[in-house]
Amino acid sequence: FPVTIPAKEAYIMRYLKRMTEERLDIETVEGKKDFIRNLVAYSIVMEGVWFYSGFMVMPSFRQRNQLRNFGSMINWVLRDESLHLKFGISLIHNILEENTELLTEEFAAEIRNIIIEGVDLETARPTKSLNVTRSQRSSLAYRDNMISFCSGFYV
């Protein structure tokens, strides 16, 4: 396995474990924060960054007039992932609107760092099969665009 797969698993399990193995009290401020952290890691990073970008090589087949039907199918998958991302962002917005005590600069910075860590894990993955050099993929512009796209809803 590439180094990033275990790192991604550790990243996502850090958030999912709290949701699945422990009692989460969403009546407390810390419980609400944990719930938001999980939503950000799962909906924004995993669904919005990792899954979406993982499928991005597929449309290139269609553009080269290869595997056209496969490319059409992948377009539907990308639309589905986009809906998951939109739903996650909407849910997070609603929770934050109803719980204004969570709207602090410190928590916003924490959420932004969760997103940055997830984007950094994605940009570190090997890209030989994508015909993109590591320096192109992990360029500051790519990283900054992904972070801005994913964190603009909150910060």
What does this protein look like?
By secondary structure, the chain is mainly alpha-helical. Helix content is 74%, strand content 0%. It is built from seven helices and no strands. The N and C termini lie far apart (34 Å).
Assess the beta-strand content as a share of residues. Answer: under 5%
Q: Globular, elongated, flat, extended or rod-shaped: what is the shape?
A: elongated
Number of helices: 7
Element order: H for helix, E for strand: HHHHHHH
Low-pLDDT ranges = 128-140
Q: How many β strands by DSSP?
A: 0
- Structural class of the secondary elements? mainly alpha
Q: Estimate the mean pLDDT confidence.
A: 78
Main β sheet profile:
none
What Rg, in angstroms, do the CA atoms define?
A: 17 Å
Distance between the termini: 34 Å
Approximate helicity band = over 70%
Entry keywords:
mainly alpha; 155 residues
Concise structural overview:
The chain is mainly α.
Show the helix and strand layout.
Blueprint: H1 4-20, H2 29-54, H3 59-63, H4 68-98, H5 105-123, H6 134-137, H7 140-151
Helix pairs in contact: 1-2, 2-4, 2-5, 5-7
